[in-house]
Design a protein that fits this description.
Elements (H helix, E strand, L loop, with lengths): L1 H26 L17 H24 L3 H5 L4 H11 L14 H6 L1 H4 L4 E6 L16 H5 L8 E3 L4 E2 L7 E4 L2 E3 L5 E9 L14 H5 L6 H13 L1 E3 L2 E4 L1 E3 L4 E9 L5 E4 L2 E4 L7 E12 L5 E12 L11
Antiparallel strand pairs: 1-14, 2-3, 2-4, 4-5, 5-9, 6-8, 6-10, 7-8, 10-13, 11-12, 13-14
Helix pairs in contact: 2-4
């Protein structure tokens, strides 16, 4: 009897140990294996392809995480690698080494050091639009396009994301000698304040109130009518509100950029998708100042978002069907 009792105790101990070990394994999962390190020896062609594929995969995961949050990339894997590669090429954020030629320079960094320490501020340089393509594959090999071979090509910028972006998802585009809005489903209104220090610009600054109070329209038909009205210029309280501004030294502007939520269907690699899923659709009031326009036309701009809120969604009404 004693032997049977001892045997039962041993079985229970083994069972408890197994359950406890299983619980620990579930609460502390083993880390996923990282990429195989490059040991410095000469790579074979196959090893090089595999290493580049791992690097591309990490870039894709980072891009998706920035846009949608952790785990989003795994959900996208139902689409083929060609489509995923196209998405990364179109919607990724450029690396610092790619935008190094657009560095505003140390003098402006020092001048606005305190200002740039605030949240939602930035210092950028834009170049005039060069006619470069905005597709996943390079369609222009001109030196100007190869010089800025990243989304936006140095001429389009998103204040909402704080990054250069393709024109369709940008807040502003530097076209010829003007800053305009070319984004899809984007209701943009500009006003010029003159030579006003950007540090002094706020929601209560003269000229900003109309932009701040403006109620966005909510149907495509009303949006088209509003765009036509502001294209002609709307006068309020001594200011003119329009669809763009002329680029010139020492001028401060304020912009209301309403990036409507909705659908804008595109097709890449045989897959139809909503391009707006790859954007941060927000309604912002942003102040920016053009510090200097260089001989090559490039413009140094310092900016600050004054207000940010959820953007409305365009509703299809009977007049738009």
């Amino acid at each position: 009897m004693l032997r049977a009792f001892t045997k039962s105790i041993a079985c229970i101990a083994i069972l408890v140990t197994a359950i406890f070990t299983s619980a620990i394994a579930q609460s502390n999962p083993a880390p996923e294996p990282g990429p195989t390190p490059y040991l410095g020896r000469r790579e074979t062609g196959l090893e090089r392809i595999r290493r580049q594929d791992r690097q591309h995969d990490r870039l894709a995961q980072q891009t998706y995480a920035n846009l949608y949050g952790q785990g989003a990339y795994a959900n996208s894997r139902r689409y083929g690698p060609k489509w995923r590669a196209a998405m990364v090429a179109l919607y990724r954020e450029p690396k610092d080494k790619e935008t190094a030629l657009l560095d505003a320079g140390e003098p402006y960094q020092k001048k606005y050091a305190e200002f740039l320490s605030q949240k939602r501020t930035g210092l950028i340089k834009l170049v005039p639009f060069q006619g470069c393509g905005e597709k996943a594959k390079v369609i222009s090999v001109s030196p100007k396009c190869l010089k800025y071979d990243f989304p936006g090509s140095g001429s389009s910028y998103s204040f909402r994301l704080g990054s250069y972006r393709i024109r369709r998802l940008a807040d502003i585009t530097y076209f010829k000698k003007s800053l305009i809005a070319r984004g899809v489903l984007n209701g943009a209104i500009f006003v010029a304040l003159g030579d006003v220090p950007i540090e002094n610009v706020g929601l209560k600054t003269p000229g900003v109130g109309f932009l701040s109070r403006y109620k966005p329209v909510k149907t495509p038909h009303a949006a088209m009518e509003a765009a036509k009205r502001f294209a002609q210029g709307v006068k309020r309280d001594g200011f003119i509100y329009g669809r763009g501004v002329h680029v010139g030294d020492q001028n401060t502007f304020v912009m209301r950029s309403i990036a409507y939520r909705g659908k804008f269907l595109r097709s890449e690699a045989g897959v139809v998708y909503n391009e707006l899923d790859f954007d941060k659709r927000r309604d912002i009031v942003v102040a920016f100042r053009i510090e200097k326009v260089e001989k090559d036309g490039s413009a140094t701009i310092v900016w600050k978002i004054l207000r940010e809120s959820k953007s409305p969604k365009l509703k299809i009404d009977s007049a738009d069907k």
